[in-house]
């Protein structure tokens, strides 16, 4: 049974949209895994399935989400997703997502990584590039600056993109009480999807793109296969 993360991995990846860095270390530094995708892509299900495996193996981890994850960030989430706040400016929206991220990263993510834990995060800064950058058409250079500021320069080590057609994703959530973002138009969500695919192509060393229409068990199997160097085989 393997109950520690493989700490001697060499990470070579793209850093916050623009720079790159290389880290090779035998010090504990955790593993920062993010899950991205349009509404109804099945991220939450996959995170729960992965959590079960980590729990069984005794691998230290935390699960968290954006916007949210801490008391202050969850309070900001409440404002961001409130369907009654339709007058919210795109600029306000961007700043609130970044405010939530700064608090969440400093208070929860960085300390967990410093303790050598795996961090499973439902959305992170790629959501900002997809939703506020592409769909709200806000300036990418500005998002670069705000991203660096609100993440303290820490990037995910690995990102799973669950990709699927917008109609399928939206059909899966149609019986929920839709939040402010979920109520956006099909063309808004198409822009989000396209931007995710473009980010995944650009930052391919960090990204693993999975077919969101596949059976949850099949997606889970692929996720475990991509993580086997860190967490061992499923039945170890
Ligand atoms: P979710 O937790 O249900 O996925 O809801 C979060 C919503 O917030 C979702 O519609 C995506 C959106 N979002 C952004 O627009 N920008 C961001 O930076 C993040 C993290 C989420």
Structural summary, described in words:
The chain has helices spanning 43-57, 71-81, 90-114, 125-135, 140-151, 166-173, 186-202, 216-231; strands at residues 10-14, 20-24, 31-37, 61-65, 118-122, 158-163, 207-211. With 236 residues, it is α/β, with parallel strands linked by helices. The chain has one domain (4-231): Rossmann fold (3-Layer(aba) Sandwich), CATH 3.40.50. Strands 4-5-3-6-7 form a five-stranded parallel β-sheet, with helices on both faces. It has a two-stranded antiparallel sheet with strand order 1-2. β1 and β2 (20-24) form a beta hairpin. α1 crosses α8 (216-231) and α3 (90-114) runs parallel beside α5. The protein is globular and about 50 Å long. Residues 39, 65-67, 97, 122-123, 127-128, 131-132, 181-182 line the site of thymidine-5'-phosphate. Thymidine-5'-phosphate is lined by residues 39, 65-67, 97, 122-123, 127-128, 131-132, 181-182.
Element layout with pairings:
Layout: E1 10-14, E2 20-24, E3 31-37, H1 43-57, E4 61-65, H2 71-81, H3 90-114, E5 118-122, H4 125-135, H5 140-151, E6 158-163, H6 166-173, H7 186-202, E7 207-211, H8 216-231
Parallel strand pairs: 3-5, 3-6, 4-5, 6-7
Antiparallel strand pairs: 1-2
Helix pairs in contact: 1-8, 2-3, 3-5, 4-5, 4-7
The chain binds thymidine-5'-phosphate.
